[in-house]
Design goal:
Number of strands: 15
Structural class: alpha+beta
Strand content: 35-45%
Largest sheet: 11 strands, mixed
Number of helices: 3
Length: about 230
């Protein structure tokens, strides 16, 4: 009898492990926007002229649609990172590009969610947000037209501190007619499209500089889907 019961337990345990292995891993999903002070969709002549001179500044924003991070539900919340680097962001020829960052946390978040949002943004952006010199709390609105990830008509507003507004590229945005995505997004994404930045600005403290860099081919509109930590 003991042998039979033991065999049954082993079968049940094995079936449970097989079922668990077949379940999808928890994930965190949502939308992402960024803009920087250099074109990301451009040709070699423009890119080479800008490298090392501009493109050190950027605004990045994530809105979580569904999911949790470090066991904290972040559904419906947003976080923004503002970056000042020492050289052009995304330039693969610069092995070390230290950056200072300001984090803007969604004012709707509670204390636990604020910590989780900061951790999530740092994970998604790699080293860019590792040196946070200032943290702000503001209402954040990140919206994409018709909530369609294929639309490039989008906006990101973080209180009075940061703003991005984008539209789709047009034929008139091609100058050399050999343009391509010269720089990849600064964040981990599952789908990203270059967009035209109608506005891109930061008017806050902490980085020693504020800026307004409109009317450039300098933005991305994207979605993300990342395993929950």
């Amino acid at each position: 009898m003991k042998t039979f019961q033991g065999a049954v337990c082993t079968l049940l345990l094995s079936a449970g492990l097989t079922l668990a292995a077949g379940l999808p891993s928890p994930s965190i999903t949502g939308n992402y926007m960024e803009a920087r002070t250099a074109d990301v969709y451009t040709g070699p002549c423009f890119a080479n002229a800008e490298t090392g001179l501009v493109g050190q500044l950027a605004v990045m924003g994530w809105k979580v649609s569904h999911g949790s991070w470090q066991g904290v539900d972040l559904s419906g919340l947003s976080v923004v990172g503002v970056v000042r680097a020492e050289s052009t962001l995304g330039n693969v020829e610069v092995k070390s590009n230290p950056a200072k960052a300001v984090l803007i946390i969604d004012s709707k978040a509670n204390p636990a969610q604020r910590l989780a949002l900061a951790s999530f943004a740092q994970h998604m952006s790699g080293h860019l947000l590792s040196d946070v010199v200032r943290t702000e709390t503001e209402p954040i609105d990140l919206s994409i037209e018709n909530n369609d990830v294929h639309s490039r008509n989008a906006s990101l507003i973080a209180g009075s501190l940061a703003k991005i507004e984008t539209r789709a590229m047009t034929e008139g945005d091609q100058i050399c007619h050999n343009e391509e995505v010269w720089y990849q997004p600064l964040s981990r994404t599952s789908h990203a499209m270059p967009a035209y930045a109608l506005s891109h600005e930061y008017d806050g403290k902490g980085l020693g500089v504020t800026w307004s860099s409109p009317d450039k081919r300098s933005a991305f509109v994207a979605s993300f889907s990342e395993p929950s930590e």
